Fold these 3 entries.
Entry 1:
Amino acid sequence: MSPRAAGRLTESSLIRAVRQRAAGGPGVRVGIGDDCAVLEPASGTLLLATTDLLLEDVHFRRRYAEPADIGWKSVAVNLSDIASMGGRPRWALVALACPTGTSLEEAEAFYAGALALAGEHGVALVGGDTSVSPAGWLVNVTVLGEVTLAPVLRSTARLGDVVAVTGTVGRAAAGLAVLDRAKAPPGVPAEWLADVTGAHLRPRPRVAEGQWLASAGGVTAMIDLSDGLATDLGHLAEESGVGARVEIERLPIAESTRGLARALGDDPLAWATGGGEDYELLLTSEPNAFSRLGEGLERATGARLSRIGEIVADGAVHFVDARGRERPATPGFEHFAAERRRG
Amino acid sequence: MSPRAAGRLTESSLIRAVRQRAAGGPGVRVGIGDDCAVLEPASGTLLLATTDLLLEDVHFRRRYAEPADIGWKSVAVNLSDIASMGGRPRWALVALACPTGTSLEEAEAFYAGALALAGEHGVALVGGDTSVSPAGWLVNVTVLGEVTLAPVLRSTARLGDVVAVTGTVGRAAAGLAVLDRAKAPPGVPAEWLADVTGAHLRPRPRVAEGQWLASAGGVTAMIDLSDGLATDLGHLAEESGVGARVEIERLPIAESTRGLARALGDDPLAWATGGGEDYELLLTSEPNAFSRLGEGLERATGARLSRIGEIVADGAVHFVDARGRERPATPGFEHFAAERRRG
């Protein structure tokens, strides 16, 4: 086979390459190659299913997102949904459409990125679809998972519950602010740049954390941060029929994020409240369970849990400063507003 | 709410509208509205999972495909995959991206089309995703199903098996040929036009037929006809490590298809062998089981089963005429060939 022929992207060459890399796994009776995947869920479990689109120039730009990044992230956003229910991700179906002129190597790099993250979490690639795209890279990933205990919903927060978040907020928005610029801002430490751009391009879903939290007892509701704290807390509050009050001084914002905000003249609080794609877990807990949960989570997984506010009766999300004054929240991502872009 | 506000497409307005229509169903613990659907598979079953992209100007054109048609077909192509394994479809996740300027009514019509077919098969819409699209309508549907007996694979055909197909072949290609023209050909009966364009726009997946065939005994392999007889029989033969010989005179071609071919100056055999998207079931059976299967299937479901050839040792697909002379097959759909379009 000539090098040129080897690089030509056809459906069969791509499927052949992906099948070689995706070697099945536990619970996979039939993987890639038949009309359906045939899977064997563990007995006594409930099935979790989630699906997400990632579209070029809506969710990412090719100028800074390599095919492997796109593959990684398209799996990450779905694993994060499984994590937010306290589930164990098991199987992924990956549909990819690439524009004419895409090479087999680029398409393979996409799958390598997807498989790298899937492999870290024991998730098998069991199916998908491929097509030419009329405009840019288009990805849809579906992840199936399992939960043995009752899944943690977003609709079950109760009045007086603590509102808490894992890790830090605003880091992915800082990364996007850097990536959106042609040049990195001068005088900023390289590790800050790597930290925030890595958070944006290759988020690490809180899968182990979600499972630990769901099994620890005392977590009353959970959601992952995809559209931004203000929007996602709004979803949790609305579905639970309650409101929420967040103390902005308590928001965990990384040093890298604050440093980039200074360098770029941006507001780190706007990133922390309105920026999407942190893929941290936002949860509510019984008030007297919070300390135990925070200490236990850090011991078990290394992740910090920060108390950022409480559930209130008033059906809205309020951000208040140390003196209790309300601060307007930056609205999150609206998927049909073409002028604003996530990612 | 003013009529204008009612028609504005936002993520929340769309999700609200879809949630009202998708009311859960058996085995649905949590449907649309949380991070994941929570599903309860029937005990003792294996899980089937399949996913398909449908992209504007690759798989369909908006000039002739209404939103409700796109919704219908995006579910149909996945149900057909479940059918080809002999499975029972249960749950669907539907991801939709529409261009700026799409109205809420158009997006709702898409879901109405999807739900109409899903409802016919007892399939609940349990999740999805929505986004603005950078270019045209983009759809990805994932369907999950169950199978109690062993699923029928495409890789288990054996030497000497009968090759058979349900219904007719080439009808969807005839429909596409009509739809691709600005005007319908003159002097063609309206019922022919309705038959072939309906086959293309609103295919009826052979779900009941697939389940009956899988449980009847004697079916050795099965696949659905999405990319065309030559291509899909090629897949079945390749995965089974065999070849196939098809007698072109035996191909079941509808009167409407033949009539349109005459009117348009096209070759009905090219449609029958190379045209995709008939979503019929192509199967192999033990030779002495064929008569029983054909009679039983027609009695149980009304669908005709036609014997069209046999499995041979030579690892290729041959189309032969009544005198045994080989006839070149029209190649099927290649998903990365931008110059050729499916749908």
Entry 2:
Amino acid sequence: MSGAARIAARVHVEAALAPGAGIELGVGPAHHLRNVLRLQPGDLIGVFNARDGEFEASIAGFAKGVARVTIGALRRVPRPEPDLWLCFAPIKRARLDAMVEKATELGVSRLVPVFTRHTAMERVNRERLAAIAVEAAEQCERLSVPDVDAPVDLAELLGRWPADRQLIVADESGAGAPIATALAGLAGPFAVLTGPEGGFASGELDALGRAVFVRRVGLGPRILRADTAAIAALAVLQAIVGDGGLAPRFVGQGQS
Amino acid sequence: MSGAARIAARVHVEAALAPGAGIELGVGPAHHLRNVLRLQPGDLIGVFNARDGEFEASIAGFAKGVARVTIGALRRVPRPEPDLWLCFAPIKRARLDAMVEKATELGVSRLVPVFTRHTAMERVNRERLAAIAVEAAEQCERLSVPDVDAPVDLAELLGRWPADRQLIVADESGAGAPIATALAGLAGPFAVLTGPEGGFASGELDALGRAVFVRRVGLGPRILRADTAAIAALAVLQAIVGDGGLAPRFVGQGQS
């Protein structure tokens, strides 16, 4: 599909997509297309979801805050996307937002906020995180958008953990195997778990160590911030046992 | 050294460090210790540099905006730290700052701003980036702080490149080998090069492809933001051919 038409933006939509259909984009994307990107009727964007794939869409018009678009040619058929969870202790807003953005770029399918002993944050704004995930998915050429779960306590997470999913725990105590060693030869599905800035409590590390589905891993000799640890673990996991062997199908936005 | 005394902060200093010596910390760290961390005379911090290692230091007093400390016991002997460069096209401030912070955490020894065809930023504030690198080094238990070079043009960088250093180029065009494959069996020293948000121009990719020291690598099927690409490439490199096999020596700050 390298001959696909150039598009000015990608917009994730829940609506069913098929050539010839007309759909409405809500206030958020409509504002972005009209007032930030300064697009006009007739301009071409991409619309996508994981179920139907990605289509060209021509802007039909803006009215009452929304945008109407007409669906055109298929740009990309749906294909399986990674099944990879990030379980994370909530951290301060700017770092959390960046972590969610980057986790989405790195192919996470599910974001699970986890309260731990040293977690300083008491609330998680799921709507804000979901909006960041949508924006990152639009930007990075994904077809899917990660789900953002309701927060759970660590004990609850471990108590109902699906036994066939490997939980890769970023452990700065030095007790974990180096991540490249730990991952070599492991079969997924996978999840990554990162703690709060204060780290896991020793009792939490003990509980994690007793779970058969847990692999405690080290990320090198430096003490990484929580957000850095999450991004680094996801990047290494995708490179070694994930979809790092695949290449982008095409680059459809931005400069050439 | 797991019996080392608990310290409230780590401060990078240029001064020579030896037990019994008294040194002065400048306005920036003094303000942080006194007004942010609320430390008092008698409280214990760590002071460090790559040449002498890390020492306990007792706060002797605050006066005229500076802090005086008395050097105590050695906490950590100097040891070799990674020789790893990050060459990066400057991007917008918030993302650039985060990239420098995370590159420091991931062990980069030299930060080289590189102007490319599609680089939108025209200036680089080296002092701000150096301050961010110092703060990140203090936080992540490094002994060294990465150097921040003056910006260079891409052609100049390639023209004077040291032939024995592998330049790992994050290439979203799909032409690069998967990063894990490309790195397997490669010997360092290494540098990572990332482009601006608009990517490399095709002529730049051609020039990079002709250089014998360049390895163009792919980071998976999604299009990563420039900052994400830099962090991901560094994390994977450290895990596969860097110091990812080492563990933290001790965790000397924060909660237990």
Entry 3:
Amino acid sequence: MSRKRGPYAKSDHRRSALSEAALRLVREKGHRNVVVAEIAELAETSEPTVYYHFPTKESLLIAALKQHDDENVRAPGAEAGAIADMGSRAEIGVRRTNYARLYNELAGAAADPDHPANEFFQQRWARSIEIITTDIRRLQTAGRVPPDLDAETTAHLLLAAWEGLQLQWMQGPQFDIRARIEGHIRALLGPLAID
Amino acid sequence: MSRKRGPYAKSDHRRSALSEAALRLVREKGHRNVVVAEIAELAETSEPTVYYHFPTKESLLIAALKQHDDENVRAPGAEAGAIADMGSRAEIGVRRTNYARLYNELAGAAADPDHPANEFFQQRWARSIEIITTDIRRLQTAGRVPPDLDAETTAHLLLAAWEGLQLQWMQGPQFDIRARIEGHIRALLGPLAID
């Protein structure tokens, strides 16, 4: 894509600043305790400007989820190692309590396809499955995972279990989510998939 | 437990009637479209009586979840066959669109331990894990599942994946959830676990 100039670049910059401010305040205070005026203040803009870009608080919260993924999800070409990292990332993820509560609440609400967060979650699953599938195929090529395993189906199962385990951990009681996820990886991909 | 008599029995009966009415209306119309007055009418009682038993609409919706499980979850001693049924039950579950949307929304919200649905989900996970663990042990005794497999850990993974798959199916795009779950069972428990 060509680099945007002038008013469009400025608008993109404003949106990014608002997304970053929303994410930072969600992490600090929890999404229920964040008000739009604070997001405006942190992003050094006015409330009307916020509402021009994000008409509802919910749309700002969805922007916070996207911002989090922009900072955390592997870029195309950087999939190698994603499986080895799943356990530790899950462990970090559940300890980001405020962020994880927002994530789980919007994920549940997005089970209704008319919910404004639905598109985000559809795209997130697609990209996550792509990342894990790519890493399984790399391990198959390296002879560390059986070649007859269906990479995409297995990626789907690994991610679905992660999603369910994270939700159950948040609801409680807590357990060793890293060990559970790494045990799952070994059970599905074989003992050589991770060190 | 001894059988309740008199006013307590009547109160229990009223609560059951309200839970059943709430569940029926959720199934028919979706929880966002149900109003407390309709639940009162269907249960043949007054709105003040509803609020006496269930102070908020949300508490009625949680009662609807419990009612659904009372009708659908295996009783102690009836765990045999639970694993063989997982795939078909998942397939039925995602097609109960209105109920599944309520379930997912409250499950996500219950990631906050202060949410009023949290206790329900904690108890639900505990009972579900118990059911699947019991059925895995039965299959181990019958020689259909390897004896060294940790039954409880595997039960947890099977249920977590079901939870995540159901959520992703609801968010879309849809896929063959029965085949995915039965493939997972065979991958974790071995080819003889289900027919």
